[in-house]
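Reading a protein record of the kind used here takes only a little practice. Think of the row as the fold of the chain written in a discrete alphabet. A record is reproduced here so that you can trace the correspondence yourselves:
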Amino acid sequence: MTEFRIDSLLPSEMATRAEYLGVRKAEMPTFTMLMLAILAGAFIALGAIFATTVSAGGMSVNAADGSQAFSTGLPYGVTRLLAGLVFCLGLILVVVGGAELFTGNNLIVMAWASGKVTTWGLLWNWGVVYLGNFIGSISTVILMFFTKQYTFGSDSVGIAALRIGVAKCQLDFLQAIALGILCNGLVCLAVWLTFSARTTLDKIISIIFPITAFVAAGFEHSVANMYFIPYALMVKMFDPAYIERVADKVPGLDALTWQAFFVNNLIPVTIGNIIGGAVLVAAIYWVVFLRSKRDL
């Protein structure tokens, strides 16, 4: 008789589930994989939109001289905490709604290490999903630009978006790799924890703390940056009147370029994300829980 359990899965059982899901993801039809990846890019972008809006400050007026200042009115850490909490929307939609996210799919390495997924199958999944995530993110960027939501809050949402984009484009290459490693370590741990879940609520709770931590700490997520930086670039390129109005509130705006997006951020952050997810989470858990099975 099969034992009935309502407890969450144990870590060894989570590893077996991760391996099983890795095989299913790698064997998914390409069209389905691409469509689900496009959805994931859009879902993460929605989390980024939420986080940007929450990070935006109001325009406070100095009673002495009438000048305006940009401030959230909250300490830096509290603002980052709130941004992290709402950014969780993205991964919750991916995991519960069903979508294919490049950073989370780094866990397919567990099935690959067990010999159940070929190297080509692993790389094909990563390539198709990465492309789909980019398409979903950029599509959301274009739609959001036409909403002119960046003008909300007396232009404060756009100022926050531009500042985020500038900061991300000013990272050093090695710094971006390190921030990417730490980010996807936490993202893959969030996904890993959902493998223990029995209910939707379990999955949501599993996601909240690791994702909030990476956003609050300022770590770098390649798919989120496919939204954050292109959105700031579109505002800069296609609304010069707005940029003229807020330029004095966004130091270093010249650093926001397409070249900086790819060279200073997306490429090194992607490298870091792969190291953090595939090596520091997937490979280590495979060695701990699945290596002995491979040796039998």
Residues 169 and 260 are 5 Å apart (CA to CA). The chain has one domain: 11-147+163-290. The longest strand covers residues 58-61.
